[in-house]
Amino acid sequence: MGYVTAVPHPRSEAAGPARAGRLSLAVALISGALGATVALLATRQQWSEGTATVAGGTFPLTAKGSDVTGVPAALAIVGLAALVAVFAVRKAGRFAVSALLALSGAGTVAAALLGAGDSSALDEQAARASGDTSATVASLSHTAWPYVAAVGGALILLAGLLALRYGRLWPAMSSRYERNGAPRVRRKAPVVDLDRPEDVWKALDRGEDPTGA
What we know:
Structural class: mainly alpha
Order of helices and strands: HEEHHHHEHH
């Protein structure tokens, strides 16, 4: 007695990659856009605070993320631009833009973590406030916002890794304007009834010869 071997349907085989492409696309878009937003917002918040000695007293000092380092915000913008550009290119170009997206996220994480313990911005403020170029900030403390920026960078990095892995399955912006490489079919000009003046005038407006000559 023979056995019948089940042959997988082509549609079922194609459904797996298509589903993975749609899911990865959604996750990449959400994580990339959210990560860039979080990183940008975090750099506008207070990252550190301390005091400077001025005229025998203490003077409070604070520094925002943008005062400490401008790298996370700049890389977040680059990452957001790369996320959009992924859909405008294909093949090698898409791989390159995806790599840029991932590097932007990794750079944002690194810059934010380095800025979490940086005191140079407050030291400069202390020097200006006291008039002593060698003055440094005292009672230095940091907030959690640098780590929030690092989380935003990690989300951008995730979007980049997804683009590197699944980007070939994602659609491109130009695909909606193409018909699988087939030339467009020109519409036939409407038949002009020479006995109807309105038809003749419409043909002339279209730049056509109503007589068909």
